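Students often ask why we bother predicting the structure of a whole assembly rather than each chain alone. The short answer is interfaces. A chain on its own may look different once its partners are present, and contacts between molecules only exist in the joint model. In this exercise we take two input lines together and write out one structure for the complete complex. Read the inputs first and try to guess which parts will touch.
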Amino acid sequence: DTGVSQDPRHKITKRGQNVTFRCDPISEHNRLYWYRQTLGQGPEFLTYFQNEAQLEKSRLLSNRFSAERPKGSFSTLEIQRTEQGDSAMYLCASSLGGAKSQPQHFGDGTRLSIL
Amino acid sequence: SQQGEEDPQALSIQEGENATMNCSYKTSINNLQWYRQNSGRGLVHLILIRSNEREKHSGRLRVTLDTSKKSSSLLITASRAADTASYFCATPRNQAGTALIFGKGTTLSVSS
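Now the answer. The structure tokens for the assembled complex follow.
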């Protein structure tokens, strides 16, 4: 059973650098989500794709953030000119589509540390 | 913005005891989900309960939903050390019901 995989698991970078994370969802899932989680908090929604279309973006997703899902399979999340406040766990999740809400399956996240 | 709020923030119990966590939310929903997160890992889906359901069971888990009070509870019976984790309730971000809004979670510690 292949779950949601995220790469890398950990990323340490200097302030001002660009970083890119990758998410591979469960293969039959057409919905893909990105969340950000800081210590002691629940995940906060960033953006959502259905197939290759980015249908929702949170106000948290500043213009330094961009996400893509070019062929409706894997997705990338890029942060440009990283800031200290970007330090967090970035979680990817996927789910089946349909009219009703479906359980979301999460990867183990990418932990980003900004020096 | 936060939709769900879990209570208590932290809970410490002995193995074999029951653990009850509560979640309150603000707006009308069509479903509510509970997730578990072990330290340093992603979230694992536990139960989804729809607004027309009042109670749902899965193994040692029992979830209730009271839409009139805008609240839900998660009961873990006969807890085990392996149940030590953070537990989150989540509600749909909007009517489309796709992305979720999570509370801050309840941290459960089960000691043997």
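Check your guess against this: The CA atoms of residues 19 and 73 of chain B lie 10 Å apart.
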